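Backbone-to-sequence.
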């Protein structure tokens, strides 16, 4: 399983996302509701990157687990015979998931 934890960001988009999610989530939530069709009344349950978890960003099977989707990982292994879900094929490792919904 792959995840990243880092505390040394002093500038850039990762820092800005961390600040928004932890300090002012309403600001980014408002914007998401405005620009994504059908999300006008969406509720958000931020799972990452949270200050209380040292800004951990979940990837691969750990990503599925934090969303309660472990069954997808089990199904993948059963169907494909592979040991792990290659989430990186769908979501690049350099862009670990930061999902605003549950």
């Amino acid at each position: 399983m792959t995840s990243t934890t880092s505390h040394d960001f002093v500038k850039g988009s990762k820092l800005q996302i961390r600040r928004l999610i932890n300090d002012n989530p309403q600001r980014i939530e408002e914007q998401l509701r405005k620009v994504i069709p059908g999300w006008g009344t969406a509720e958000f349950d931020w799972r990452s990157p949270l200050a209380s978890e040292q800004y951990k960003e979940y990837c691969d099977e750990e990503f599925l687990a934090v969303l309660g989707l472990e069954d997808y990982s089990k199904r993948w292994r059963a169907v494909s015979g592979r040991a792990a879900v290659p989430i990186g094929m769908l979501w690049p490792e350099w862009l670990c998931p930061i999902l605003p919904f549950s």
